[in-house]
Amino acid sequence: MKITWHSHSCFELEDSRRIVIDPYLDNNPAAHAKSVQFNPDLIALTHAHADHLGDAAQIARRTGCLVVAISELARYLDRLGVRTEGMNLGGSLRVGEIVLRMTAALHSAGITQTDPPLCGGHAAGFVIEDGTSVYHAGDTALFSDMKLIGELYRPEVALLPIGGRWTMGPREAALAASWIRPEVAIPMHYNTSSAIAADPAEFQELVETLCDTEVVILEAGDCLEY
Ligand code: NI
Ligand code: MN
After folding, report:
1. Assign residue 90 a region: left if phi > 0, alpha if psi is -120 to 50, beta otherwise?
2. Is residue 3's pLDDT more than 90?
3. Which ligand sits nearest to residue 8's alpha carbon?
């Protein structure tokens, strides 16, 4: 699988299909790519906050790709003319060769593009299996059921937020990695703005003291072949 980080929480997974997670691109000061460059088969959304929902509706309307999200967010996107499949925490969905498992995340989830915000359901993470098994934690606090995610789905790659303030910081994310025990952990959701400044090397050093997981630090636009 080719795993490309487009900064923040936006990743593209390419194996049998092209999957884009949380396409925050056109208003993202750290992203090099623009939404018009994307032609995914599927978009997975962890939650409705603007830095995750991002350009999902525009990409989906242009390409006709499927968007997978928690039920309330899927219904909101239906009304914007997007083809969606809703699901919920703890559930699994098969789309062709791909299996998506929606995991819990400890975070809020209002649709912040509207004023006032609408109910966006719950924040989530995903374990996405398409050849390789990848856990995208979404925005979340540390919670000990991450051990269960590791035990149940044994993800080979974990994408973990380290920016602090709205999510785990390096210390919490390192403990998360030691509980999930993936082969590779990639830090995300940091240095997009000064509010979430974090040092990925600090995360890397902490993980190395706790477990055998290899931390791979990507630059925006870089990819890992796994
Ligand atoms: Ni959020
Ligand atoms: Mn966020």
Report:
1. left
2. yes
3. 2
For residue 106, give the ligand nearest its CA. 1
26 Cα–ligand 1 center, Å: 17
How many other C-beta atoms can be found within 10 angstroms of the C-beta atom of residue 195?
A: 9
Ligand approaching nearest to the C-alpha of 49:
1
- CA of 126 relative to ligand 1 center, distance in Å: 15
List of domains in the chain? 2-220 (3.60.15.10)
The residues, ordered by sequence, that sit 6+ positions from 37 with a Cβ below 8 Å of its Cβ are: none
Helices 200-210, 170-180: inter-axial angle, 10-degree rounding: 40
51: CA distance to ligand 2 center in Å? 5
Q: How many CB atoms lie within 10 A of CB 209?
A: 8
Cα 189 to averaged position of ligand 1 atoms, centre (Å):
10
Angle at 98 between CA 147 and CA 150, to 5 degrees: 10
pLDDT digits (tens, 9 = 90+) for 9-48: 999 999 999 999 999 999 999 999 999 999 999 999 999 9
At residue 136, the 3 state secondary structure works out as: strand
Which run of H or of E encompasses 77?
helix 71-78
Nearest-10 Cα torsion for 103, 21, 100, 14: -140
